[in-house]
Amino acid sequence: MRKHLYLGAAVAAAGLAALTALPASAASSSVLTYGSVGGSAVATGDVLTASLQSGTIATLYSTAAGGTGVKCSSSAFNATVVSNPTAPGTAVETLNSQTFAGCSAVGVTGVTGVISVTVNNLTYTNNVSDAAGNPVTLSPGTAGPIQTTIVLKTLLGNVTCAYQASPTSLSGTTNNTAQTISFANQTFNKSSGPGTCFANGYFTAAYGAVLDSSKAGSPSVYIN
After folding, report:
1. Which pLDDT belongs to residue 67?
2. How many CB atoms within 10 Å of residue 26?
3. pLDDT for residue 20 is more than 50
4. Residue 34 Cα to chain centre, angstroms
5. What's the pTM value of the predicted model, to 2 decimals?
6. What confidence tier does 24 reach under pLDDT thresholds 50, 70, 90?
7. Which terminus of the chain has fewer CB atoms gathered within 10 Å of its CB, N or C?
8. Per residue, what are the HEC states of the chain?
C-alpha cells in the first residue's frame, strides 16, 4: 500500500515538474500572428505583402480635406519581418518596396497626366505595436528621408516634383477586422520642383489584407 502511495505521489510530482518546466512563450503569442489573432507567430525573415484595400485609392492631396494633387488606383508594398517579440510589444519590419500605378492628377493647373510616382530612399523601418489603437510608425532608414518623386506631364513637357515626409516619420494604424494597415493625411512638403508642383501633400492610403507570403497559401497577418 505504501509502495502504491509513493508511486502515485512520484507521478504527480513529475507531472507538476513537467508543467513548470514549459517555456513561458508556450502560453503566449507574438505581436504578429498569421491565420488568426493569437495564431502562429510570424517568423523573422518572412515577407509581408499587401495591395490597396478593395474599393479604395491612394491620394496625395494639397490639403487634408482634398483639393489638388494626385490619386492612384493601385499601390502595393512588401516588407521583411526583422523581429517579432512576444506580446505585448512592438514588431519591427523593413519596408523593401512600395509601388504606385494608375495615377492621375486632380485639379493641378497645367498638368495633363501623371507619368510616375516613385518611393525613394528605401528601405524604411516599420514599427508595429499591439498597444491601444495598434499604432504603426514608418521611419526613414540610412539611405535618406522618406521621399516620393512624382513626374507630371504638362503642356510644356514633364516636370519632376519631390516630396518629403514632415515630420520625418509617418504614423498609421492596423485593424484586425479588415486586416489592414492605414495612413491618413500624413504630411509631405515639397523639397524640389517648379511652381507647377503643388506645395504640400497629405498622404492617405489603406492596405490590406496584409499577407505572409512566405507561408503556404499566404495567410492573413494579425496583431495581438
Report:
1. 82
2. 6
3. no
4. 15
5. 0.84
6. very low
7. N
8. CHHHHHHHHHHHHHHHHHHHHCCHHHHCCECEEECCCCCEECCCCCEEEEEECCCCCEEEEEECCEEEEEEEEEEEEEEEEEECCECCCEEEEEEEEEEEEEEEEECCCCEEEEEEEEEECCCEEEEEECCCCCEEEEECECCECCEEEEEEEECCEEEEEEEEECCCCEEEEEECCCCEEEEEEEEEEEEECCCCCCCEEEEEEEEECCEECCCCCCCEEEEC
What is the pLDDT at residue 199? Answer: 86
pLDDT digits (tens, 9 = 90+) for 125-144: 999 999 999 999 999 999 99
Task: Supply 136's cell numbers.
Answer: 504603426
The residue extents of the domains of the chain are: 2-223
SS3 sequence of 23-86: CHHHHCCECEEECCCCCEECCCCCEEEEEECCCCCEEEEEECCEEEEEEEEEEEEEEEEEECCE
Query: Do 198 and 69 touch, CB atoms closer than 8 A?
Result: yes
